[in-house]
Design goal:
single chain; about 240 residues; alpha+beta; hypothetical protein PF0899 fold; four-stranded mixed β-sheet; 8 helices; rod-shaped
Length: about 240
C-alpha cells in the first residue's frame, strides 16, 4: 500500500520552471474598459466659447483671475442698477413736482375766490349795519323824511304835477307838523302827498310826467350794494 502511494505522488510531481527577474520588475498592464467611447475632439466654436483664464479655457485660471471676473461682473451689475434706479427716481420726482405745481395753482385760485367771497360778505355786513342805523335814525327823528324828499325832488326833471308817495306814518307826520308843505315844495307847481303802505318809513317814491325817482330806503341800499360788488369785481380783474 505504501509503495503505491509513493509511485502516484512521483507521477503527479509538478515541474518547476525558473523565473526571470526582469519579468517581475515590469509593470502590469491595466485592461482597457469595454463600452466607453473615446472623447470627441472640441470644435473651434466650442473652444472660442470658453474664455481665457477660466477653467476649461486655453489656460488654467488662477484664483485672482476668477476674483477679477466676479468683481467686474458685480461692478457692471451695480452700475446698471444704479442707472435704472436713478431713472425711476427722476420720473417719480417729475410726477411729484407736477402735482406740487398743480397744487400751487389750485391754491392760488382758491385764495382769489376766498378773497372775493370775503369782500362780498364784508359789503353785505356793512350794508346791513348801515340799514339798521338808518332805520333807527328814521324812527328816532321823523324829520329825516323831509331831507330825503328834498333830495329826491332835486333829481326830478321839470315837472307839471308831482306825486310823492310816502309811508302813512311819514305822511301823517308831515301833514300835522308842516301844514302847507306841499305848496312850499311845489314852488307854485302842483305837489301831491300820497300815503302808500308799500313805502317804508324814511323813503319816498316821486312820480312825474317825465319819469320816477325811487328814493325808497331799501332801493337806496340795493344800489349801494351793487356799486360795491361792481367795484370789487373790477379790482379782482
Amino acid at each position: 500500500m505504501a509503495i503505491r502511494l509513493i509511485k502516484q505522488a512521483a507521477a503527479e510531481a509538478v515541474v518547476i520552471q525558473p523565473l526571470c527577474l526582469a519579468e517581475l520588475e515590469a509593470p502590469f498592464a491595466e485592461p482597457e474598459p469595454e463600452g466607453v467611447p473615446d472623447p470627441e475632439p472640441r470644435t473651434t466654436a466650442q473652444s472660442a466659447a470658453i474664455p481665457a483664464g477660466l477653467p476649461g479655457g486655453g489656460e488654467a485660471a488662477s484664483e485672482a483671475d476668477i476674483a477679477q471676473v466676479e468683481r467686474n461682473a458685480f461692478e457692471s451689475g451695480f452700475r446698471q442698477g444704479e442707472k435704472a434706479g436713478k431713472e425711476i427716481a427722476e420720473k417719480k420726482m417729475e410726477a411729484v413736482m407736477r402735482r406740487y405745481g398743480d397744487s400751487i395753482l389750485e391754491l392760488g385760485k382758491a385764495k382769489s375766490a376766498l378773497y372775493a367771497q370775503v369782500e362780498r360778505e364784508v359789503v353785505k355786513l356793512a350794508v346791513a349795519v348801515a340799514r339798521k342805523i338808518v332805520h333807527r335814525e328814521i324812527h328816532v327823528d321823523p324829520e329825516v323824511v323831509q331831507t330825503l324828499v328834498r333830495v329826491a325832488l332835486s333829481h326830478a326833471a321839470e315837472r307839471s304835477v308831482v306825486t310823492i308817495r310816502l309811508n302813512p306814518t311819514d305822511h301823517q307826520f308831515l301833514l300835522e307838523k308842516h301844514p302847507g308843505w306841499e305848496q312850499e315844495l311845489g314852488g307854485g307847481q302842483g305837489v301831491v302827498l300820497v300815503a302808500d303802505k308799500t313805502i317804508e318809513r324814511g323813503g319816498c317814491l316821486i312820480q312825474t310826467d317825465c319819469g320816477d325817482v325811487d328814493a325808497r330806503v331799501e332801493e337806496r341800499f340795493r344800489e349801494v350794494e351793487r356799486g360795491f360788488f361792481e367795484g370789487c369785481e373790477q379790482v379782482g380783474q
